[in-house]
């Protein structure tokens, strides 16, 4: 499972950052940096879909670097979920699918949430924290 998740981002279909959370002691970003990274990822993802020689390409799903791995999951609605983690982290696909499940359960089913707007849902945030801690194998450290 995920050994060390640094950040989690959720981007709406228009490219706007609707959720951001730091989970690691490394890789902390300020608000402007998180907005820039989300915007850059949205643009790269869209360009890769158009330039791909493979038919039916849905964009970049994994970016591996020396200091981090970035894994992306795009829902059918166009909402993108991506996580930045320690290099070589296993299980990021299943982690993102679980995050999507929490998003559906706690955000989309919330009658007070407006689609495409920033996510402000305490139960979603608490459930994400529990999911990330469980995947790290860390309890309250």
From TrEMBL:
CDD domains: TRAPPC4_synbindin (cd14856)
Subunit relationships: Part of the multisubunit transport protein particle (TRAPP) complex.
Keyword RNA-binding attributed: no
Keywords of the record: Endoplasmic reticulum, ER-Golgi transport, Golgi apparatus, Transport
Cited InterPro entries: Longin-like_dom_sf, TRAPPC
Ubl conjugation recorded as keyword: no
A GO BP entry: endoplasmic reticulum to Golgi vesicle-mediated transport
Gene Ontology cellular-component terms listed: endoplasmic reticulum; Golgi apparatus; TRAPP complex
Name of protein: Trafficking protein particle complex subunit
PANTHER family xref list: TRAFFICKING PROTEIN PARTICLE COMPLEX SUBUNIT, TRAFFICKING PROTEIN PARTICLE COMPLEX SUBUNIT 4
Protein's cellular compartments: Endoplasmic reticulum; Golgi apparatus, cis-Golgi network; Golgi apparatus
Domain of life, per lineage: Eukaryota
Record family assignment: Belongs to the TRAPP small subunits family. TRAPPC4 subfamily.
Organism (species): Ceratopteris richardii (Triangle waterfern)
Pfam family name, one: Sybindin
């Amino acid at each position: 499972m995920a050994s060390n998740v640094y950040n989690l981002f959720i981007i709406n279909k228009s490219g706007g950052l609707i959720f951001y959370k730091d989970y690691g002691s490394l890789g902390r970003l300020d608000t402007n940096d998180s907005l820039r990274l989300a915007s850059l990822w949205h643009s790269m993802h869209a360009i890769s879909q158009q330039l791909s020689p493979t038919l039916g390409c849905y964009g970049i799903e994994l970016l591996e670097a020396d200091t981090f791995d970035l894994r992306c999951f795009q829902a059918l609605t166009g909402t993108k979920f991506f996580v930045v983690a320690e290099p070589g982290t296993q299980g990021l696909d299943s982690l993102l699918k679980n995050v999507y499940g929490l998003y559906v359960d706690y955000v989309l089913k919330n009658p007070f949430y407006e689609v495409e707007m920033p996510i402000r849902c305490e139960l979603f945030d608490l459930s994400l924290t529990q999911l990330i801690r469980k995947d790290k194998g860390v309890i309250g450290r």
